[in-house]
Specification:
The protein is of the alpha/beta class and 373 residues long. It contains eleven helices and 18 strands. The structure holds nicotinamide-adenine-dinucleotide and zinc ion (2 copies). Belongs to the zinc-containing alcohol dehydrogenase family.
Length: 373
């Protein structure tokens, strides 16, 4: 390619400061270094976790940066030592790496990897291949898909089918895979069971889809936005409950509806109080509750007795999928019509309208907006 080995100048949405709108800038993207791949981003979803880093995370530790971690693109060039990718490959960048060699990758107990970007947080500047106006721009989560081009480590990239539509399967880079896997892999929902999913954004709706795929006989969808009811039913929910319609705590409502609690619950709202409600909505003797919503600046609590009696409280990161090996299979499952993806996309906008995409999400008007480059 004509650009191989050269700096590429392109458009990106830069987050200069926390709690400020992203601005479209021309950035410089350096060539990939050893074991890195540079790709042209074709499309990217906008996830609540991007919004969280910009507006809700009080630590404000990663600015200026380019957000975005739900993208799909085409390899432009590869750095020295890269053997698994070549220019032209269709790929999905991964915010959870899978090096395949570390003690975590070698264990079937986890989808974590010691080479994951989060462990590199202290060296964020040195890991970045982006500059703008003379400043290093952090590549948040090692993905930075709110840019026309990005550089990722080969352990955090996966090759997908040549026929996959990139403006759809980008959502398998985070939200859909996360919720679906949280139900199937982490909760391990059983056939005939009763489930509750709290928070019906893309992650929660994907969790509903996972509960249905696992054979749950009753799926209670819970959201404070009444407009989510019909969408939840489209994804397999049998009941919709709006906590605002009740005076009593929502866990009591669910307990009564199910004669003692659901077997499985999943928290996909990202709120520590909802996490507690989700736990306490499960059957005391054997309920399993999974935390999927992302919070790292507040504590979550419950009474120990609520666990002592037999409940299990778990968390799920990227739906428990070992990323490099699983995402291409999820793409195939979508193309074989085994899982939904198109139904999550309510809006498509150009990169320039990324702030509008955040607004649509936070006001509950969208499920997922896909930004096209
Ligand atoms: P979203 O903003 O699109 O959806 C959140 C939903 O929760 C909305 O429908 C909202 O109305 C609902 N909600 C808010 N408060 C509620 C309450 N008190 N009770 C019930 N429902 C409530 O977000 P999303 O993109 O679907 O992401 C959901 C969460 O998952 C976020 O916290 C995100 O950061 C997190 N996340 C985690 C992972 C992971 O690996 N664990 C990956 C992706 C996203
Ligand atoms: Zn995400
Ligand atoms: Zn690893």
């Amino acid at each position: 390619m004509a650009t191989t080995g050269k700096v590429i100048k392109c458009k990106a949405a830069v987050a200069w400061e926390p709690k400020k709108l992203l601005t479209i800038e021309e950035i410089e993207v350096a060539p990939p270094q050893a074991h890195e791949v540079r790709l042209k981003v074709v499309a990217t979803g906008v996830c609540h976790s991007d919004y969280y880093v910009l507006y809700e995370d009080i630590r404000d530790y990663a600015f200026p940066c380019v957000l975005g971690h739900e993208g799909a693109g085409i390899v432009e060039s590869v750095g020295p030592g890269v053997t698994r990718f070549k220019p032209g490959d269709k790929v999905i960048p991964l915010f959870v790496s899978q090096c395949g060699e570390c003690q975590l990758c070698l264990s079937d107990k986890t989808n974590q990897c010691v080479k994951n970007w989060t462990v590199d947080e202290k060296n964020m500047e040195s890991k970045s291949r982006f500059t703008c106006k003379g400043k290093v721009i952090i590549q948040f989560m090692g993905t930075s898909t709110f840019s026309e081009y990005t550089v990722v480590r080969e352990v955090a990239l996966t090759k997908i089918s040549d026929s996959a539509p990139l403006d759809k399967v980008c959502l398998l880079g985070c939200g859909i895979s996360t919720g679906y896997g949280a139900a199937i892999n982490t909760a391990k929902v059983q056939p005939g069971s009763t489930c509750a999913v709290f928070g019906l954004g893309a992650v929660g709706l994907a969790a509903v889809m996972g509960c249905q795929a696992a054979g749950a006989s009753r799926i209670i969808a819970v959201d404070i936005n009444k407009d989510k009811s019909s969408k939840a039913k489209e994804f397999g929910a049998t009941d919709f409950v709006n906590p605002k319609d009740y005076k009593k705590p929502i866990q009591e409502v669910l307990m009564e509806m199910t004669d003692g609690g659901v077997d499985f619950s999943l928290e996909c709202a990202g709120n520590v109080d909802v996490m507690r409600c989700a736990l306490e909505s499960t059957r005391r003797a054997w309920g399993v509750s999974v935390i999927v919503g992302w919070v790292d600046v507040k504590d979550v609590s419950t009474k120990p007795v609520d666990l002592i009696c037999g409940r299990t409280w778990k968390g799920s990161y990227f739906g428990g999928w070992k990323s490099v090996q699983s995402v291409p299979k999820l793409v195939s499952d979508y193309m074989d019509k085994k899982i939904k993806v198109d139904e999550f996309i309510t809006h498509t906008l150009p990169l320039e309208k990324v702030n509008e995409a955040f607004d649509l999400m936070i006001t509950g008007k969208s499920i997922r907006t896909v930004l096209k480059m």
